[in-house]
Design brief:
The protein is mainly alpha-helical. It folds into two domains: 56 residues, no CATH class; 220 residues, Orthogonal Bundle (MetI-like fold). Helix 11 packs parallel to helix 12. The longest helix is centred in the C-terminal third of the chain and has 38 residues. The chain starts with 11 loop residues before the first helix and ends with a helix. Its main location: membrane. This is ABC transporter permease. Keywords: Cell membrane, Membrane, Transmembrane, Transmembrane helix, Transport. Belongs to the binding-protein-dependent transport system permease family.
């Protein structure tokens, strides 16, 4: 073999190809998943805004809805000019998107306060209610799920019936029952209002019963999956008690999936919070929304729906990110 035969080709083209490969891997990996998540979020928000824009116009001329049935033609013309309702529907839609990008939903028809400010003023009360509900759901739902999975048969039968009842009975029925007993008959708690710990109890319990039942069911289902792993059989074979295997080995391995599901479940609680807030006159954003609908205060309606939608989207994004972090297979599947 001559020296000419031993000459190697230059490595520069290979390095360029490697760089392209690494860039491609980056685009098909976490960056691509992030871009897909941002795109879904943007499309969801755009869909929400579009739905919100046309829902306000379902009953016809918004000027007539705002002014009421006794408005004169001159008053209607003034309202149309003030809110830009005399322009084409496409122009109104583009104006609405532009105003939303500036977080400008106009002013409340009745209070004169900026609509978004009026909506956001009630948001902390709703977040407190949701947080208290989730705390109660975790504190009671996880032990209930363990008992449902590992408890004696009579306990499991009774508990399964109670959990089914908690998921089946509507929140307003539970709320009316609690109010009739704890507020009207016994006088232990105020029936209406917000701002104090006492007024938070019944709305939280009403909303939490469904969440507790869902959490218990999730824990039970995840434990079924975890117990298929060999390390639990190994722990039991080494002499660990059934209780120790369940609490020290099975539950910690099931909890990450349960935690990710709980974050997503939080977004569903917001819709339930609307009913509970109205029932107990709890001054959260759900009650603010319903009050604005009945008062025909559509700037506040739009601002409230926008705020609720953004909160739900943020919660779902957090839940999706948490699920990807806890289970990388989810991110690879999405990519």
């Amino acid at each position: 073999m001559t020296a000419l035969d031993d000459v190697r080709p230059p490595a520069a083209p290979a390095r360029r190809g490697d760089a392209r490969g690494r860039a491609s891997d980056l685009l098909t990996g976490p960056l691509r998943a992030l871009l897909a998540l941002l795109l879904r979020t943007a499309l969801t928000l755009l869909g929400l805004l579009t739905l919100l824009f046309f829902l306000v116009r379902l009953k016809g001329d918004p000027a007539g809805v705002l002014a009421g049935p006794s408005a004169t033609p001159e008053q209607l013309d003034e309202i149309r000019a003030a809110y830009g309702l005399d322009r084409s529907l496409l122009a109104q839609y583009l104006d609405f998107l532009g105003d939303t990008a500036r977080l400008d939903f106009g002013t409340s028809v009745f209070s004169g306060q900026p609509a978004l400010e009026a909506a956001l003023a009630a948001l902390p009360a709703t977040l407190v209610l949701i947080f208290a509900t989730m705390v109660l759901s975790v504190l009671l739902g996880i032990p209930a799920g363990m008992a449902l999975h590992r408890g004696p048969r009579p306990v499991r039968v009774v508990l399964s019936g109670l959990l089914t009842l908690g998921q089946a009975v509507p929140a307003f029925v539970i709320g009316v029952g609690l109010s009739a007993v704890l507020a009207v008959r016994l006088g232990w708690l105020p029936a209406f209002g917000s701002g104090t710990a006492a007024t938070l109890v019944m709305p939280t319990v009403t909303l939490a019963l469904f969440a507790i039942a869902r959490t218990a069911r999730m824990v039970d289902a995840e434990l079924d999956l975890v117990e298929q792993h060999d390390f639990l059989r190994t722990a039991a074979a080494k002499g660990a008690s059934e209780r120790r295997v369940a609490w020290r080995h099975a539950l910690p391995n099931a909890f990450p999936a349960v935690a990710a599901a709980l974050v997503v479940e939080t977004s569903y609680l917001i819709s339930g919070a609307v009913v509970v807030e109205v029932l107990f006159a709890y001054d959260g954003i759900g009650k603010r929304l319903v009050d604005a609908i009945f008062a025909r205060d559509y700037p506040v309606v739009q601002a409230s729906v926008f705020a609720i939608g953004v909160v739900v989207i943020v919660i779902n994004v957090i839940g999706d990110a948490l699920l990807r972090a806890l289970d990388p297979r989810t991110g690879r599947a999405a990519a």
